[in-house]
Amino acid sequence: MPTTQLFVELLVIGYGATAWLVLLVAAALGWQPTQISPQLAGEALVPLTALSYVLGIILDRVAREFFEKVLPKATAPAEGISLEDAEHSICEKSERLWSSCVYNRSRFRICRAWTLSFAMIGIAYSTWRIRIDMLAWSQSAEILVLAFLCSLLAAWATVHLHRDYYTQVGKLFRFLRTL
């Protein structure tokens, strides 16, 4: 995977983690929305981007561990061949075909991580809203339901992208073996 593509993927994953982490900090400190000035937000852009990258790496690993326990084990691409060996073979034999695998794997990893981020954003936002305004229960509940619906949709996409990726790698590996 090209370095720039991996960097962007980890940033996209990390932005979700940064959002819920910032909301949890705001809830813990009782920050009101008016206490965050646009100037401070601009000054925090570079450190938040760096934090997002690191959190993207961490969240990708956490999501991987979680989903390895939840997702059904996919079948091997071919008899006696691991997924990693099949990927390596495709990469060596066809850069163009490998690029399509990388794209699909990237979509899978982003959805996998955002499944967790959507849920955490809903929890963190609700916690923050209730902390700053005890009467915000209905709005918090609406956001929480919406976040969990987004989380469920991302989980659904993750399951399908997982299956599709294994199928794609298997088909490409078997095709390239016949050449």
Question: In words, what does this structure look like?
Answer:
By secondary structure, the chain is mainly alpha-helical. It has one domain (3-178). It contains six helices and no strands. It has helices at residues 3-29, 38-43, 45-70, 83-93, 95-132, 137-178. Helix 1 packs parallel to helix 5 and helix 5 runs antiparallel to helix 6 (137-178). The protein is elongated. 27% of the residues are buried. The model has no long low-confidence stretch (mean pLDDT 88).
Structural class: mainly alpha
Distance between the termini: 24 Å
Low-confidence stretches: none
- Please count the beta strands (DSSP E, at least 2 residues each): 0
Helix content: over 70%
Cα gyration radius (Å): 20 Å
User: Mind describing the biggest β-sheet?
Assistant: none
The percentage of residues in β strands lies in under 5%
What's the number of structural domains? 1
Question: How is this structure best summarized?
Answer:
The protein is an all-alpha fold. It has helices at 3-29, 38-43, 45-70, 83-93, 95-132, 137-178. The chain has one domain (3-178).
Short key terms for the protein model shown above:
6 helices, 179 residues, mainly alpha
Reconstruct the topology from this structure.
Blueprint: H1 3-29, H2 38-43, H3 45-70, H4 83-93, H5 95-132, H6 137-178
Helix pairs in contact: 1-3, 1-5, 3-5, 4-5, 4-6, 5-6
